[in-house]
Write a structure and sequence with these properties.
- The chain is mainly α and about 375 residues long.
- Among the domains are: about 140 residues, no CATH class; about 100 residues, no CATH class.
- The protein contains 16 helices and six strands.
- The strands form two sheets. It has a three-stranded mixed β-sheet with strand order 1-3-2.
């Protein structure tokens, strides 16, 4: 960025009648975050790989791999087009002189665990590309939402490896503008406490999945099981039983004996993977607890709120709701309310009927609703951009 600023100063030195005006431009675009707001192209400066040994950068790379697995081989058909003023046009032209063709993209290290969420992510990227200013201002919040959606839906799906490709799992939120109550069954039973109970399975089962594979890309656990079970090989069954017995002996775990079918043997592998992190296993238990604690604090934290007697709940504030609404409506001009709710659910955000009524009232106050009747069948919601 320092070099880019110097190049821009040189360019404007040849354009300005009075170079003493440069400090004003520098304060506008380079003192603070102004330059990054011009165009998505300027966000390239935030993809620097400096200081890879730093733990935070390692975490950033891991998050990058998460999003890379979501967009897969997705490519924009055209570059996002901003409406730039004459100053910004010069800044972008300076940047273009320094751009070169990137090397071939390295394939993702792992395939997307949640294909339905990956499709929604690609649709939302396409929508954002058509609204570049919205993309630059909301990109961080979009990534926060998708990090939450991916990790929460993964936690709800990871133990269901025998069911095939995952489908969206119910996870209920309330809105910050409505009252909470412990009497509301779905937010109570399929909300924060339900999600929190599932997170303890994530690290053990995903670690087991990687341990069973020695080739890239790493297959999702459900796909790995599908390929193993469809092969229905006596050799694979014997190898799984041998692995389970050795694993149990190494970790000093109870071993129930060899299984006579692949489903049971694979299930034993997963049970042992979880058991090694159970209470009483000292350092191993603390490793998984640290993983769960960081997940709840860094990924789930923006969406978990304490609501008095109702305890912790999953909650969306108005800014998060409007972003989710705009993404769900996407390229369309407006969307019928019931279809909008389905798009929310495809992205991992569920609302009970009481919250849905509050949603409609909120949209009406915002003025982005066309109501054809009193039922949700004939209520249409527009984007706010």
């Amino acid at each position: 960025m320092d070099q880019f600023q110097a190049d821009c100063e040189e360019r404007f030195g040849g354009l300005l009648d009075d170079i003493s005006n440069w400090p004003l431009l520098r304060s506008m675009y380079f003192e603070g975050d102004g330059a990054h707001q011009i165009s998505p192209l300027l966000l390239l400066f935030r993809s620097s790989k400096q200081g890879n040994a730093n733990e935070d950068n390692a975490a950033n790379r891991r998050m990058g791999e998460l999003f890379a697995s979501l967009y897969g081989d997705f490519k924009f058909t055209s570059e996002p087009q901003n409406q730039l003023n004459f100053l910004e046009q010069e800044l972008i032209s300076v940047l273009r002189t320094k751009l070169c063709e990137s090397p071939a993209r390295v394939p993702a290290k792992e395939l997307s665990y949640l294909p339905y969420l990956a499709e929604a992510f690609k649709e939302d990227l396409t929508f954002l590309a058509n609204h570049p200013k919205y993309l630059t201002t909301e990109l961080t919040n979009v990534l926060r939402q998708y990090a939450f959606a991916f990790c929460s839906q993964l936690a709800l799906s990871v133990t269901r490896w025998a069911e095939g490709a995952p489908q969206t799992k119910p996870l209920y939120f309330i809105l910050d503008i409505e009252k909470s109550s412990s009497e509301r069954a779905k937010p109570r039973d399929l909300g924060y406490k339900f999600l929190s109970a599932q997170t303890e399975w994530l690290f053990p089962l995903l670690s087991a999945s990687e341990a069973l594979q020695d080739a890239a890309p790493v297959l999702p656990l459900w796909q790995l099981y599908s390929e193993i079970s469809s092969a229905n090989s006596d050799e694979i069954l014997a190898a799984l039983n041998e692995y389970n017995e050795a694993f149990a002996a190494d970790r000093k775990l109870d071993f129930t004996g060899a299984q006579d079918n692949i489903h049971s043997a694979f299930g034993t592998t997963m049970t042992l993977a979880k058991a090694q992190f159970s209470k009483g296993n000292g350092e191993r238990h603390s490793v998984n607890q640290n993983y769960v604690r960081d997940l709840e604090r860094k990924i789930f934290g923006d969406f978990v709120k304490s609501r008095g007697r109702a305890g912790n709940v999953l909650e969306l504030n108005q800014d998060q709701l409007l972003l989710l609404t705009n993404l769900a409506v996407g390229q369309r001009e407006k969307l019928r309310f019931l279809e909008l709710v389905k798009e929310f659910e495809r992205r991992g955000f569920y609302f009970d009927l009481q919250s849905q009524q509050v949603l409609i009232e909120f949209y009406e106050r915002m003025g982005n609703v066309d109501r054809m009747s009193d039922s949700g069948e004939a209520v249409y919601v527009r984007k706010t951009i």
